[in-house]
């Protein structure tokens, strides 16, 4: 519980940090430096990364894991933050528990109830309303597009969580988490060097990159991935409900972001859909009929 809560706190702060550095560097440069910092940190633990036994055919699942996160997920999330506010993006993340349940049903055959499907549909309607109710501003020029990209990023994250749970029984948390950083370095390098770099760099901006690479890409993912090996993946995903709370608080305190009244109602709709989807099913009591 502590590991999951701390991971959500770090991820909530990452939206604000990303929003800042995207005003300094191009998205490919930000992601490359973030993965490079995480990769350099992992090199300090290189002796612990080879303690696993590869099984034939697992390369497909490992390739899917790396493609989902960091490749597709970060491409979608960073571009989402170019069009929507950090607070709205964090709110969309609340969809993850329901999306994990749906992906677990498709890939692992885990049961999904009609109530979960209903809750997911309600929450998605809330996300759409959140984008439509947003006013165009310097930090959110196209909220509808940004929130749609963030929702696709959450779908990647949901699939990643299920694949990670499948692989965690055969591989340790350390090599699976380190795989993300090294795949990310290779994947984002072409994006990073496709445009000119800024002439001067401020120490504070570099400190934010170090925070994203060391504390979020390495720390938060390591905490979350370890927690997934200890509890059910749907239970771990439920802690993502804390993410929009932390993100909205950070966005209010550090960026001065505000929600319109319609967006406030949309946030309540999202939370209501999540509550409906995660509400425990009532067990029918068997009543014995009297014997004549």
Automatic annotation (TrEMBL):
Gene3D superfamilies: 1.10.3730.20. One of its GO terms (cellular component) is membrane. It is found in: Membrane. Pfam families: EamA. The keyword Transmembrane applies. It comes from the Bacteria. Signal peptide: none annotated. It is a multi-pass membrane protein. Residues 2-130, 146-276 form the EamA domain. The chain crosses the membrane at residues 27-46, 58-76, 88-108, 117-138, 144-164, 171-194, 206-224, 236-255, 261-281. InterPro entries: AA-Vitamin_Transporters, EamA_dom, EmrE-like. Its main location: membrane. The keyword Transferase does not apply. Keywords: Membrane, Transmembrane, Transmembrane helix. Belongs to the EamA transporter family. PANTHER family: EAMA DOMAIN-CONTAINING PROTEIN, INNER MEMBRANE TRANSPORTER. This is EamA domain-containing protein.
């Amino acid at each position: 519980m502590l590991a999951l809560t701390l991971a959500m706190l770090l991820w909530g702060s990452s939206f604000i940090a990303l929003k800042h550095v995207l005003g300094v560097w191009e998205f490919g440069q930000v992601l490359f430096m973030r993965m490079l910092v995480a990769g350099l940190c992992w090199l300090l633990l290189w002796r612990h990364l080879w303690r696993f036994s590869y099984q034939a055919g697992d390369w497909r699942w490992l390739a899917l894991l790396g493609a989902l996160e960091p490749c597709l997920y970060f491409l979608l999330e960073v571009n989402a933050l170019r069009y929507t506010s950090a607070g709205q993006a964090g709110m969309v993340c609340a969809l993850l528990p329901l999306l994990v349940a749906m992906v677990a049903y498709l890939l692992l055959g885990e049961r999904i109830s009609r109530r979960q499907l209903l809750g997911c549909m309600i929450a998605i309607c809330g996300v759409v309303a959140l984008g439509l109710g947003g006013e165009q501003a310097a930090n959110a020029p196209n909220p509808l597009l940004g929130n749609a990209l963030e929702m696709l990023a959450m779908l990647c994250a949901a699939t990643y969580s299920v694949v990670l749970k499948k692989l965690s029984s055969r591989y340790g948390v350390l090599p699976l988490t380190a795989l993300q950083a090294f795949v990310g370095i290779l994947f984002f390098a072409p994006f990073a060097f496709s445009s000119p770099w800024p002439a001067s760099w401020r120490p504070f901006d570099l400190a934010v990159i170090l925070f994203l690479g060391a504390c979020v890409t390495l720390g938060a993912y390591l905490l979350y991935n370890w927690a997934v090996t200890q509890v059910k993946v749907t239970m771990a995903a439920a802690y993502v409900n804390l993410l929009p709370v932390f993100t909205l608080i950070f966005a209010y305190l550090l960026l001065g972001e505000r929600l319109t009244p319609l967006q406030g109602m949309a946030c309540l709709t999202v939370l209501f859909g999540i509550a409906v989807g995660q509400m425990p099913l009532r067990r029918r009591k068997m009543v014995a009929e009297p014997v004549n």
